[in-house]
Design goal:
This protein is mostly beta strands. The chain has one domain (about 1-20, about 40-260): monomeric porin ompg (Porin). About 10% of the residues lie in helices and about 50% in strands. It contains 3 helices and 12 strands; from the N terminus they run αβββββββββαββαβ. The chain has helices spanning about 1-20, 185-190, 240; strands at about 40-50, 60-70, 75-80, 80-90, 95-105, 125-135, 140-145, 155-165, 170-180, 210-225, 225-235, 250-260. A 12-stranded antiparallel beta barrel has the order 1-2-3-4-5-6-7-8-9-10-11-12. It is globular. The model is unreliable at about 5-25 (pLDDT under 50).
Length: about 260
């Protein structure tokens, strides 16, 4: 029944897309097209700091490619998300397509509360996405399913991006969002199996829950062809996630910093 409701929701958004009134001409706001403010295509390398395990209050540092670009105004890469637009309104402020994105796993030995458990695998999620640019900001809606076979879970997310400062040298976007994770996704990353218990860790089955996110992402122009890109986001875990015996803190931050070249 939940799967049927999800399909109906996606179909509704697609229907709204096709009946939407559109004005002629490309009116895309490149600054809020993605969470990273962009005028030109940028390519670079950076580092990200994120929790070691699900709900951990300790952090790990990972090198990450940072790409923010589109090709033929059809294919795009935004940090770690890639996609293709399939349908547009005439002004391209309303677009429907497919996106793919990663979900990081973790090594159980790295966490204080997860030692002795199985590792959780890196996953790839894919699904339809809808972007609607308005005069106040950009709304993104996406349904995604794990296509890599790690959790076999699904989630539905809503994100809003608004430009907070737009200068020649410095640009800053703010973002807020909400995501609903189903029980398979939550249980894989936050659950504790019967064979993973210990004297201090009881078995736990995580159900579906809703998490909230907020962040600030900016770019600083070093010269005509290079930028410093940075961001900080925080996720407030849902109840089914936060109640897990492996969770140390409910608020999960992510910080990244990168040097990028514009083309």
């Amino acid at each position: 029944m939940k799967k049927i409701n999800t399909i109906k929701t996606v179909s509704l958004f697609a229907g709204l897309f096709f009946i939407s009134a559109a004005q002629a001409g490309d009116k895309i706001d490149r600054t809020t097209e993605t969470i990273i403010p962009r005028i030109k295509n940028t390519y670079g390398i950076g580092i990200a700091m994120l929790p070691k395990t699900s709900g951990s209050d300790q952090f790990r540092v990972l090198p990450l490619p940072i790409i923010n670009a589109n090709y033929a105004d059809l294919f795009y890469i935004n940090a770690l998300t890639a996609g293709v637009w399939l349908f547009d309104s005439d002004d391209k402020r309303l677009r429907f397509g497919l996106a793919v994105q990663p979900r990081f796993g973790w090594d159980a030995k790295d966490g204080r509360l997860t030692r002795g458990m199985r590792d959780r695998d890196f996953a790839v999620e894919m699904g339809p996405t809808l972007r609607w640019q308005t005069d106040i900001g950009t709304f993104n809606v996406q349904w995604a399913a794990d296509i890599s076979g790690a959790s076999n879970g699904q989630n539905v997310g809503l994100q809003f991006i608004r430009n907070l400062y737009r200068g020649k040298v410095f640009m800053l976007n703010g973002t807020v969002g909400v995501a609903r994770n189903n029980s398979k996704l939550n249980n894989y990353y936050f659950g504790v199996g019967a064979n993973e218990t210990s004297l201090t860790r009881t078995a736990y089955s995580a159900g579906a829950s809703t998490e909230f996110r907020a962040g600030l992402i900016g770019t600083y122009l070093v010269d005509n062809n290079s930028n410093l890109t940075f961001g900080v986001t925080a996720t407030r875990l849902g109840d089914a996630q936060a109640d897990s015996p492996i969770v140390e803190t409910r608020v999960q931050p992510l910080v990244f910093f990168a040097y990028t070249i514009a083309y």
